[in-house]
Amino acid sequence: MPLSTQLPFLYVAHDDVRGRSVFTSEEIEEGSIVEICHVIILNKKDTRAIHETHLHDYYFVWDIVNGTSALALGFGSLYNHDDNNNAEFELDLIEKVIRIIAQRNIKAGEEITLDYKGHKEEGNELWF
Prior knowledge:
CATH architecture: Beta Complex
Number of strands: 10
Number of domains: 1
Structural class: mainly beta
Oligomer: single chain
Largest sheet: 6 strands, antiparallel
CATH class: Mainly Beta
C-alpha cells in the first residue's frame, strides 16, 4: 500500500459556520481509505508550545507515553469534528502516517468529518 494517497475527488471549501472543510465530489464507500497523511511529529517541548499558537486546533495527539503530537499534511488537519462522524482516523506510529477511513458510505457533496476524541469513551471531552 502506498504511504501517501488522497482520493482525487476530495476538495476543501469554506463553510460559514465551520470554516475550511473537506468534502467529496463523488461517493465514497464504507471502509475505503479516504486519505493517507504523512505527519510532522512534534516532540514533548514543541507539543507544550503548540498550545500557545493557532496550530493548537490542528494537531493530533501522537504518542501519549512520550508526550508527542503530530501535524497531518495533505488535508489531514482540516477535517472537522462531528459526534456523528462519517470517517475515522487511524494513527500508524511505525509508518508515521494517519489514515482517514470512511466508516459509512459518504455521499457526493457531503463533508467528511472525524470524531477528534478517537474513541467514544466517557470523560474524553473536547476543548471546544
